[in-house]
Amino acid sequence: MNSDIKEILYSQEQIQRVCQELGAKLTNDYQDKKPLVICVLKGAVMFMADIVRKIDTYIELDFMDVSSYGNEMESSGSVKIIKDLDVSVKGRDVLIVEDIIDTGRTLACLASLLKHRQAKSVKICTLLDKPDRREKTISPDYVGFQVPNEFVVGYGLDYQGFYRNLPYVGILKPAVYEKN
Ligand code: PRP
Ligand code: MN
Ligand code: MG
């Protein structure tokens, strides 16, 4: 285990199990819909890669780079589109794949943008949901785990750009961010 991690919250095995379960639901719900599945970079890359391989129907993938945190611990409140979609969402069933919903600002902004662009439906699949910190009313349609209000990293989630490559989700030791 990485020495900056206080505790593993969700192991590789637990994450794979949840991907399998959500993938089965998505396979059923999106049968014959040919949805556009959108990965929100960079945090959602690991979850996206794992979950789409558990969806057994026709899906198209696209990527969007949206950032609200920069290198800070707290959300800045503004959501920047760094890379937009390549594919039009007009008339499409859209599924947004996220690593975590925290304040809800990123997804509130993204979901309303995609609706404005006339997506037929917009649903959200998130690995982690941290409802304690919610500022915007946003309720995900598919959730892997509800997380306690701790600073979590790994499996795509970063602190100052690092820890994304950990294969599990863990709680960062406070000493790591207290020295900054
Ligand atoms: C993180 C995370 C979510 C968002 C959640 O992304 O990956 O996308 O913040 O926070 P919110 O619900 O308060 O908006 P971040 O902006 O740090 O970019 P990253 O995915 O590139 O790390
Ligand atoms: Mn993100
Ligand atoms: Mg981040």
From TrEMBL:
InterPro entries: HGPRT, Hxn_phspho_trans, PRTase-like, PRTase_dom. Purine salvage pathway enzyme that catalyzes the transfer of the ribosyl-5-phosphate group from 5-phospho-alpha-D-ribose 1-diphosphate (PRPP) to the N9 position of the 6-oxopurines hypoxanthine and guanine to form the corresponding ribonucleotides IMP (inosine 5'-monophosphate) and GMP (guanosine 5'-monophosphate), with the release of PPi. It catalyses: GMP + diphosphate = guanine + 5-phospho-alpha-D-ribose 1-diphosphate; IMP + diphosphate = hypoxanthine + 5-phospho-alpha-D-ribose 1-diphosphate. Belongs to the purine/pyrimidine phosphoribosyltransferase family. Pathway: Purine metabolism; IMP biosynthesis via salvage pathway; IMP from hypoxanthine: step 1/1; Purine metabolism; GMP biosynthesis via salvage pathway; GMP from guanine: step 1/1. Its cofactor is Mg(2+). It comes from Liquorilactobacillus nagelii. Residues 9-160 form the Phosphoribosyltransferase domain. This is Hypoxanthine phosphoribosyltransferase. It comes from the Bacteria.
